[in-house]
DNA sequence: CTTACGGCCTGGGTGC
DNA sequence: TGCACCCAGGCCGTAA
């Protein structure tokens, strides 16, 4: 399940292969998860790739300016196009999406639905068993419209920003961590792992966290994400990086998918419960449940 | 406005 | 061997 660390790992892998390459042709298999596939094919054929970046769980393949096919005066271009946003291909990997670079002659994995032929004889391929992913071409101005409402990147947010976002909300902290409009990039694995690390129960509300708990959660979230990036993400089902290799952070999971197993800190049996509509894994001893029912607002 | 919840998309894994 | 069912994450509609 690609979350921030997995997408970051894929992006870093793609950055080693794609910038400077040119997309020769785009071919599709199934397109029910693609917004305007014909626009993607027409818009990207012949375009050079200038960079790859992550935005939350989204991945952006950025194109060079459309008129860059021939020689041009860079200074003049900058002067006239200064406010123009680069076109970019926006990709969300959903649950089972994979982006890999391979030789065009390499065997095609099942459920591979998009092929970007590159000018060096290789292909960028999009494979997605469930097709819960998403792909669309962002033109000038689309970026703010599509991505503008997303929350802070958890690795860029200061402790004060994090506290302001989470600490004034009455919703369950698990729901807040998962809400992409609060923080962008956190999913079920890293929410559960961070809450365990911070010893905060997922059903606590944001505004019930004491300052030291809020600080612990902020630090736990960043430490967990950084370690997961270092270990190239969690491969619990289909996730692989741009080279097709699995990550290793799943070997460090302390609660996720460990229901019934012993807590690494205290030995109690890890529990699983549905919180915010999601499977949530926690230690019932280390992470104290809120005692009383939450008040339905002040009345 | 905020929060909670159910349904929908798809198909691999599981259990009978 | 087949087959019904569960579940995953994001998003959207609805209700309170």
Largest sheet: 4 strands, antiparallel
Structural class given helices, strands, pairing? alpha+beta
* Terminal-residue CA separation: 41 Å
Give me the strand/helix succession. HEHEEHEEEEEHHHHHEE
- Helices, by number, come to 8
What percent of residues are in strands? 15-25%
Strand order of the largest sheet: 1-6-7-5
Number of strands: 10
Mean pLDDT: 88
Q: Rg to the nearest angstrom?
A: 21 Å
Helix content: 25-40%
Shape from CA axes? elongated
Notes on the structure:
The protein has 299 residues and is an alpha+beta fold. The protein is built from 8 helices and 10 strands. A hairpin with a 2-residue loop joins β9 and β10 (278-282). The chain is elongated, with a radius of gyration of 21 Å. The relative contact order is 0.15. The structure holds a DNA duplex (16 and 16 nucleotides).
Observed structural traits:
alpha+beta; elongated; 4-stranded antiparallel β-sheet; DNA-binding; 299 residues; 10 strands
Short description:
The chain has 299 residues and is of the alpha+beta class. It has helices at 4-15, 37-44, 74-81, 142-147, 159-167, 173-178, 188-198, 211-230; strands spanning 23-28, 49-55, 58-63, 88-92, 97-103, 112-118, 122-128, 134-138, 271-275, 278-282.
């Amino acid at each position: 399940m690609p979350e921030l660390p997995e997408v970051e790992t894929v992006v870093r892998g793609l950055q080693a292969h794609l910038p400077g390459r040119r997309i020769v042709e785009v071919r599709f298999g199934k397109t029910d998860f693609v917004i305007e596939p014909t626009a993607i094919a027409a818009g990207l054929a012949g375009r050079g790739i200038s960079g790859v970046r992550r935005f939350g769980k989204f991945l952006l393949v950025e194109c060079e300016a459309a008129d860059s096919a021939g020689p041009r005066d860079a200074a003049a271009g900058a002067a006239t196009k200064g406010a123009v946003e680069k076109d970019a291909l926006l990709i969300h990997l959903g649950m089972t999406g994979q982006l890999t670079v391979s030789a065009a002659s390499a065997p095609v994995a099942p459920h591979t639905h998009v092929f970007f032929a590159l000018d060096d004889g290789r292909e960028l391929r999009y494979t997605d068993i469930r097709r819960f992913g998403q792909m669309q071409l962002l033109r000038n101005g689309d970026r703010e419209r599509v991505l503008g409402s997303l929350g802070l990147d958890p690795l860029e947010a200061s402790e004060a920003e994090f506290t302001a976002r989470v600490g004034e909300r009455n919703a369950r902290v698990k729901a807040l961590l998962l809400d992409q409009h609060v923080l962008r990039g956190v999913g079920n694995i890293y929410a559960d792992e961070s809450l365990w690390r911070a010893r905060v129960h997922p059903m606590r509300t944001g505004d019930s966290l004491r300052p030291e708990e809020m600080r612990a959660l902020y630090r736990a979230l960043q430490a967990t994400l950084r370690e997961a990036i270092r270990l190239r993400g969690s491969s619990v089902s289909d996730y692989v990086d741009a080279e097709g290799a699995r990550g290793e952070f799943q070997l460090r999971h302390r609660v996720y998918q460990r229901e019934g197993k012993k807590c690494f800190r205290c030995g109690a049996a890890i529990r699983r419960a549905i919180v915010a509509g999601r499977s949530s894994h926690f230690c019932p001893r280390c992470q104290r449940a809120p005692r009383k029912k939450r008040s339905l607002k002040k009345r």
